[in-house]
Design a protein that fits this description.
Layout: E1 2-10, H1 14-25, E2 30-34, H2 41-46, H3 48-67, H4 83-108, E3 111-114, E4 116-119, E5 124-129, E6 132-143, E7 147-149, E8 162-163, H5 165-168, E9 177-181, H6 185-196, E10 200-205, H7 216-228, E11 232-235, E12 239-245, E13 248-253, E14 259-261, E15 263-266, E16 270-272, E17 305-307, H8 318-334, E18 346-348, E19 353-358, H9 361-367, E20 371-377, H10 382-387, E21 393-399, E22 405-412, H11 415-427, H12 432-436, H13 446-456
Parallel strand pairs: 1-2, 1-6, 2-3, 6-17, 8-15, 9-10, 9-15, 10-11
Antiparallel strand pairs: 4-5, 5-6, 7-16, 12-13, 13-14, 18-19, 19-22, 20-21, 21-22
Helix pairs in contact: 1-4, 1-8, 3-4, 3-6
């Protein structure tokens, strides 16, 4: 079987399905190749969406057990955990969203091809599917195959007791003791889920700090909050191996006794998924970090072959991949497409949430950029007090000479939503004064952002 398209996309994750829908919207004949039965990629199936569902459920479990009495709500008995039902809710959300993408494909007439896609020379994609091999001919190919968990030497995964985030999203019971290797976003989010549900959680991190890449002031404050919640951190630890020990595990590290636990979660980052894509058939060579090199408009070294998302350089974030996908397709069809990589927000969905956009203070210092900063705590905010969630602060960084916003960092309630205002302001080249003089509704959490902008000029209104 042979069929011809304007664009064939390999990968049905955030980049792949977004590119498919935008290209079809612009009038192109599009096919999207995805090997998994569900569209949505890692993000939807075993990443962003299921983890956020469990974070929400686990936070409500904690609130029911410990946070309602202050509101005058007294439960007659302590809340009980129904883990299968919690997991069922998560799975239903995933299924609903995946079905929604399928429906949008049908409405936009995107052809969905089930199977493993690989390049077979220029203009050809072979798909090994359940019914055999299909060859698609196309004017353009977009590689959007995403990423997979990075391995760690000495850590042998059995995908049961010793596993990755995929397994940690579906544990059949709450571990007695969970060891998390890696204090990055994924480790802290999933570690928080299982700590809230009753597990003892120990986080081992090779670096001397948690959350590498996050503004250091924010990361230090976050560590205090997470410790208060019961997470144990051991920093500067080089893990050398893991082994099964009956129904449990043992984790070995340099200079310390082996650590016994019930389960191990390995999350030391992700790497591009490029295996079996037939890149050699079109002369594409990977860079030293296993990524596909691209030009200014996402073009590879092979004519008509493009790449976006986790398989190329940059942050491995679903929204970054989506922006690249739209920019790539729009440039192909209209000649115009752009992504501002200085304005890609980053979010950690712990409690409190952490969100940022732009430069960190550490980066500005290293680059020698002159700046001023202002901060404001949620503890002084009326809406935060009404919520009962007052931990954290907003930090605004502005250029010392022009006052243009350089970075905004939030740790506190609904940081994931508040950061959108900062990103929008920065997209329009706003100054801290612009943000400070914008009227914000009262009482809202966003007033903390306004007050932090006022603090850049030394005139915060909510602080003594």
């Amino acid at each position: 079987m042979t069929d011809s398209y304007d664009l064939v996309i390999i990968g049905g994750g955030p980049a792949g399905y977004t590119a498919s829908l935008r290209a079809a919207q612009l009038g192109w004949r599009v096919a999207c190749v995805e090997k998994e039965p569900k569209l949505g990629g890692t993000c939807l199936r075993v990443g962003c969406i299921p983890s956020k569902a469990l974070l929400e459920s686990s936070e409500r479990f904690v609130e029911a057990g410990h946070g309602l009495a202050a509101h005058g709500i007294v439960l007659p008995v302590a809340p009980a955990l129904d883990l299968p039902r919690m997991m069922g809710r998560k799975d239903a959300i995933v299924q609903s969203l995946a079905s929604g993408i399928e429906l949008m494909f049908k409405k936009r007439q995107v052809v969905r091809v089930l199977g493993h896609g690989r390049l077979d020379g220029l203009g050809r994609v072979q798909v090994d599917g359940p019914d055999g091999t299909t060859t698609l001919t196309t004017k353009h190919v977009l590689i959007a195959t995403g990423s997979e968990p990075s391995p760690l030497p000495g850590v042998a995964l059995d995908l049961d007791r010793i596993g990755t985030s995929t397994e940690a999203l579906a544990y059949p019971e709450v571990p007695g003791h969970l060891v998390v290797i890696g204090a990055g976003v994924i480790g802290l989010e999933l570690g928080s889920v299982w700590r809230r549900l009753g597990a003892r959680v120990t986080v081992l991190e090779y670096l001397p700090r948690i959350l590498p890449g996050i503004d250091s002031d924010v990361a230090r404050r976050a560590e205090v909050f997470f410790k208060r919640q019961g997470l144990t951190f051991e920093l500067g630890v080089k893990v050398t191996g893991t082994t099964r020990d009956g129904d449990g595990c043992r984790v070995t590290a340099e200079g310390r006794e082996p650590l016994a636990c019930d389960r191990v979660l390995l999350c030391v980052g992700r790497r591009p998924f490029t295996a079996g894509l037939g890149l050699d058939t079109v002369g594409i060579a990977l860079d030293p970090r296993g990524r596909i090199p691209i030009g200014a408009h996402f073009e590879t070294s092979a004519p008509g072959v493009f790449a976006v998302g986790d398989v190329v350089a940059g942050a491995m974030l679903a929204h970054k991949a989506e922006e690249e996908a739209v920019a790539c397709v729009e440039h192909l069809v209209t000649g115009v497409g752009h992504v501002d990589y200085n304005l890609i927000p980053n979010v950690v969905y712990t409690s409190p949430e952490i969100a940022s956009v732009g430069k960190t203070e550490d980066e500005l210092k290293d680059a020698g950029v002159p700046y001023r900063k202002g901060s404001s705590p949620f503890a002084a905010n009326g809406r935060a007090k009404a919520f009962g969630h007052t931990d954290g602060f907003v930090k605004v960084l502005a250029h010392q000479e022009t006052d243009r916003l350089l970075g905004v960092h939030v740790i506190g309630p609904w940081a994931s939503e508040l950061i959108a205002e900062a990103a929008t302001a920065m997209a329009f080249g706003a100054s801290s004064e612009d943000l400070a003089r914008t009227c914000h509704a009262h009482p809202t959490l966003a007033e903390v952002l306004k007050d932090a902008a006022l603090a850049v000029d030394g005139r915060p209104l909510s602080q003594a």
